[in-house]
Design a protein that fits this description.
With 367 residues, the protein is α/β, with parallel strands linked by helices. The protein is built from twelve helices and ten strands. It has an eight-stranded mixed β-sheet with strand order 1-2-4-3-5-6-8-10, sandwiched between helices.
Length: 367
């Protein structure tokens, strides 16, 4: 009996080690492909490089990548916080449609990816610091590339930072583009709660209705209530939309860059998947409180730069209807447009991500 048990354990360990070895081999192969793409871009006159820069009193990492360095700059502010996807340092060579048409700049924000370290002061994890950090990056990029204005692209949490930057420092931007634009999170929770209740009633889903009764009505900040609410939105699906004709966005696809990035060590991958999110989402509860209390409606309505929102029609996280309502209230001296991703929620699926890229390229080309 012990021999059979020992053999079983040995087989499991062997398979586990084999999977690790194969994964590492595949990682090396993919990294080589990325490096080849980078070398090709450089040889043809492009730029693809990573820098470590002092931003906000800590080391933060920035990537510059473009087939033509003289093209307009698109600076991406990723979501999270704590998770630099899809537009972080690991984005090198992942988005050729973008880098063919603009000089893409990606950076891992404070507490995320290569910009995470265990000595970051938790008190610095606040929205105002993130805005200050991003503004420093904006100026660093403008000075380095000798361009007076750039295109600012915020995604999810990055739209909180991006909206504030576009409002405060409009002279630095050709346009602000919000992908998955956050407007009023608590009001969005209320909309999502009512939507879940309606959908669960239609389906006679007693389990979901019981959970909604148990957690009560919003707002939710952190803890079990917020966690259960998020699970329901995932299930229904308000985060990642799918139906009989529409495939979900690939979550693995969102993070694959981290596994194949030549700029990420295995330690960095650990930071991306565990240390950064834990630090930013669970250890920094004051930041979470700030994020959930975000409300731009009626507070920031006038801009002096062009404004574009690109929003998943089924998004119940950065609520689509609220984003549209907010957009309609915006006054600007520049251009403005609201663009719907018809088959996505908060995460654009493959087809809608291509649509996002096309719209971004159109915006950059039309200014």
């Amino acid at each position: 009996m012990l021999t059979i048990l020992s053999n079983g354990i040995l087989n499991v360990v062997t398979i586990f080690l084999l999977v690790i070895v194969i994964s590492l081999i595949l990682r090396k192969i993919k990294q080589k492909q990325v490096l080849n793409n980078i070398d090709k871009m450089k040889k043809e006159g492009g730029i693809s490089e990573i820098e470590e820069v002092d931003i906000g009193g800590i080391k933060q990492h920035i990537v510059f990548e473009g087939a033509d360095p003289s093209k307009p700059i698109c600076l991406f502010i990723h979501g999270g916080p704590g998770s630099p996807f899809p537009f972080g340092v690991s984005s090198r060579s992942l988005f050729p449609n973008i880098t063919e048409n603009c000089l893409a700049v990606y950076f891992d924000q404070r507490g995320s990816g290569k910009s995470y370290n265990k000595n970051i002061d938790k008190k610095s994890m606040n929205i105002e610091q993130f805005i200050s950090d991003a503004n420093e990056v904006v100026d660093y990029v403008r000075n380095k590339m000798d361009q007076d204005k750039i295109y600012l692209v915020g995604n999810s949490f990055g739209t909180i930072v991006g909206t504030e930057l576009a409002y405060r420092y409009s002279d630095k931007f050709h346009a602000y583009i919000g992908l998955g634009q956050i407007t009023n999170i608590i009001e969005g929770q209320k909309h999502a709660y009512d939507w879940l209740k309606t959908e669960a009633t239609k389906k006679s889903d007693g389990k979901t209705l019981a959970i909604l009764t148990e957690i009560g009505e919003p707002p939710y900040f952190y803890g079990k209530q917020e966690g259960k609410f998020g699970d329901l939105l995932n299930q229904y699906p308000g985060y990642n939309y799918y139906d009989d004709k529409t495939e979900k966005a690939s979550v693995l696809g969102l993070i694959k860059g981290a596994f194949i990035s030549p700029d990420y060590t295995l330690s960095d991958i650990y930071k991306v998947l565990l240390s950064g999110p834990k630090f930013s989402l669970f250890d920094s509860q004051d930041l979470q409180d700030e994020i959930i209390r975000t409300n731009f409606i009626g507070r920031i309505n006038e801009f002096k730069t062009s404004i574009y929102f690109i929003q998943g029609k089924h998004d119940k996280v950065a609520n689509y209807d609220l984003a549209k309502k907010y957009f309609e209230s915006i006054q600007t001296i520049g251009k403005k447009a609201f663009i719907s991703l018809e088959n996505s929620a908060h995460y654009p699926n493959k087809e809608d991500f291509t649509h996002f890229e096309q719209e971004l390229i159109k915006i950059v080309s039309s200014q």
